[in-house]
Amino acid sequence: MTDAQRKLGWGLAALLVAGNMIGSGLYLLPASLAPIGSSTIIGWVVATFGALVLAGVFAGLGRFRPQADGITDFVEQGVGPMLGYQASLAYWVAGWVGNAAIAVAAVGYLAHFFPQLEGRWAGAWANVGLIWLMTLTYMAGARVVARLGGLFLIVGLVPIVLAVVAGLMAFDPGVFSASWAPDGRPLTESVPASLALIFWAYLGVETAMVVSSRLRDPERDLGRASLAGVGLSAVVYIAASVAVFGVIPAGELAQSSGPFADLAGRVLGASAAGFVAVCAVVKTLGTLGGWILLAGETARSSARRGFLPRVFGQGAVTPPANPLIHAALMSVIALGSAQPHLADQFGILIAVTTVLILIVYALCSLALWRFTTDWRWRLLTVVGLAFSLVATGYAGMEYLPWVGGFFLLTSLLWPIARRRIAQQGQQ
Length: 427
What we know:
Blueprint: H1 3-6, H2 10-21, H3 24-27, H4 29-33, H5 40-64, H6 71-79, H7 81-110, H8 120-138, H9 142-169, H10 173-178, H11 187-198, H12 207-210, H13 218-245, H14 250-253, H15 259-268, H16 270-304, H17 321-336, H18 342-371, H19 375-395, H20 400-426
């Protein structure tokens, strides 16, 4: 197989984008959003707008810098080596912390068959097992992960679509309206609160950028893949949210570890619930594999530029040590963040991940501003930057001091990294 044949086309890349987004965000978030209520449908619309804007930003980056190697390379080229270094480390950390959250979502649906997995340590060790399973898959190659992601997307969506269609047919306006605001909060409070959780589902919009060096024609395909992936995900998310809140009362939904299995069980029967749970596990594993790929590619790109040790890779080759180190890090996170309830662990992990990645999105918007003087692209960057910063504030104010500490630490370490980069450039 030639190098060109090993590259990804925009269609396969779009499936990778959608596959990375449609996973834990679809399967577990309805339970996390239940305390806020069915008014979160407005939050989904707002988040979709933001995701489409950011997809446009990434399309512009691919157009003006088609040879960039991953999302943080755009930041380095646009706003300088130091911020590129910090963005690389932020995205890298977010990658393996977020993977632990995706594994939690998969375990939540496995608990439909094995209720003991809802326990703190049984669930944590199950997370570790799934992480290592998909790490071995990544070691088989990027195309294997992309193809499995596309296949698992189809496998996962078919029963979900059936459950959503059945849910919409059984939609009860009374149930939906009664769940509008369970805690009585006005929209001015509930919509921002929902964004904190909802935008987790759109993390992955940058997938095509991260694997830009693997695309056949980055200048053309990056934008197509990003927009198509967001569009497919948005249709699924909004329809699913309406269906779930129209069938399951918010109070009961908040206690669910498998919302769509419960939806199928109510509408189609117990056997359908089991079928949906199996497919949800399969799809979430595909998402986990895709995000393990992103973490590995980010580390390889960072190591190539001297931001991380060479053990993570040099040039276009990703050595076996790369995914093995990440699997160990993710295992530590999965065990260290274990909580009595899976939903609690999921909430902590997605908050940290979302804040870190939204900051990287903001830096990408700044980079695009530097790459063009066209007012249309610059208007897009302003909107993308504003959305990223506002969403960062809503995603987890309590985590911002920790994030600030992270950037302070990386600033202090920058002189050391700069010397290593200079030494590497001389070799």
